[in-house]
Amino acid sequence: MSLSNREIADIFERCADMLQIRGDNIHRVLSYRRASETIRGVPRDLRVISKEGALTDLSYIGKTIAAKIDEMLDSGELEFYNRLKAEIPEGLVDIMHINGVGPKKAKLFWEQLDITSVDALKIAADNDKLAALPGMGKKSQQKILEGIEALARQTGRASIGDARPAAQKILDLLLELPEAQEGALAGSIRRGRETIGDVDMLIAADESGPIMQRFVTMENVARILGQGPTKSSVELLSGLQVDLRVLAKARWGTALNYFTGSLAHNVKMRQIALDHGLSLNEHALSPVDENKTIIETADKILCDSEAKIYATLGLQYVPPELREDSGEIEAAREHRLPRLITIADIVADLHMHTTWSDGKNTIREMVDACVKRGHQYIVITDHSRSLGIANGLSIERLLAQAQEVRRINDEMGNRIQALAGTEMDIKADGSLDYPDEVLEQLDFVIASLHSGLSQKREQVTARLLNAIRNPHVRMIGHPSARQFPNRDEVDADWDAVLAAAKEHNTILEINANPLRLDLKPELARLAKDMGVPLAINTDAHREAQLDLLPFGITIARRGWVEAEHVVNTWSFERFRHWLKDPS
Ligand code: DGT
Ligand code: CA
Ligand code: CA
Ligand code: ZN
Question: Which of 86, 245, 330, 576 is the most buried (most CB within 10 A)?
């Protein structure tokens, strides 16, 4: 059996992990790790590339690695990996990936306590056996226990940042076929969930054969999970599963509605249909008798649009992002759904980095890129001095940068307004990274949590409140500090945080980076309900990341947010006046 790209990448990654646990030369470790990353990003089947003799054209794939790829493609196995497995118990790899462990500690636990599985590690930690080991302690033991819990919650779901563009590409490809009349993404992608279990895709066509054929023969397909006239499923080389359904245009509305979900929304919709004497499924609305049995002789109502379903049931049209049975049906009944924000409403980006700290583009490059994207105003917000790993700015460099931003702003004339700001660290002890007399020289100050993220609720809350109350701090960046897939949000008293933000007119950010999406939708909705000002920003560390805004818009829409609640939909005039007098 031949292996898929993803399986080969997984094996190289595990080789790298095992070499690292063994304590091998770091360059050797890295050669396997980089090969693994390269392969994960390759959009074509390695089998094809190998046949072309082009494996070594890929970055970080030399002769040795290429030979190992060929070995796996031919035999489905890798002798080198088998030998490593005989030496290093495989469970150590899982242990090493727990937050707070790493290769050295995994080896320590193995050598000292003969621990070779996550379960055994948990038992040892529960029984206080890790704390006494050299270099350990109660605190690191507790951290490992939390890491194990976080691991248990991981479900192997893809980030929307990866899944949505990949799905859209496939849809575009299929829509090129002459048979395809209409197409859409459905399921959790269409509803805009932060993570995606599998991709659901619909195409309207009279003849499905050519569409299904094209779908299962795409070059990034690892294996076909099923192929039929109405439904096919494939697994991509990336590991993502895609379900495609082909149906008649006349049933487009009912099918799209059904496969968009959520399940809970569908269940409510079906109940409302029954209240109208109709049975709703993916094919049609069908009249039922008093026993709720479909009257076979009665004419079915076909819906070629979702609008027709909602209208037939006396409901306002419900945007997909709201379809979670969290009050949207009740609101639709009373025609009081929000007018959700759209990407066209955004006129500014208040959070981005440059080469002054850990960004990849200069101030001028970022400013030009924002002009190109049509922004009216932006803020340059590099990291502050205590964030050493991000090359944070000393006070001298910060003030020099502000001068440079203002010089460039003058150069730009009325093409854009570029403001001088900072993303200041809220330090672990709760203090802010720059004194007030420095902050007051800036146009806009963000404060963010980057460290001390596992502190207790009271401590984290106090840090956030301290930042919110500072008169120079105008926004809290990525307030919960969560990161996909495995950094949980901080534990904070969000009621207190939102109330303080409201009182002090401190903006809470909806960070649009798909790894963050923070505030999460539930908190964004609470904030909006309380009248807390919001902003949707990219936190771009390079020019291309300025295009991540749509992911933030999706999150805001899931939080029922309207344009008015988001300060970077306001004109520069209004924003500037509000900064001076936010009351
Ligand atoms: P995911 O894939 O876990 O990210 O989440 P979804 O929502 O995409 O779930 P999926 O792919 O299992 O199914 C897509 C939609 O199809 C789901 O949102 C609602 C609909 N659906 C699936 N199974 C049922 C069902 O048994 N009854 C009803 N009414 N709808 C269903
Ligand atoms: Ca799905
Ligand atoms: Ca599905
Ligand atoms: Zn940032």
Answer: 245
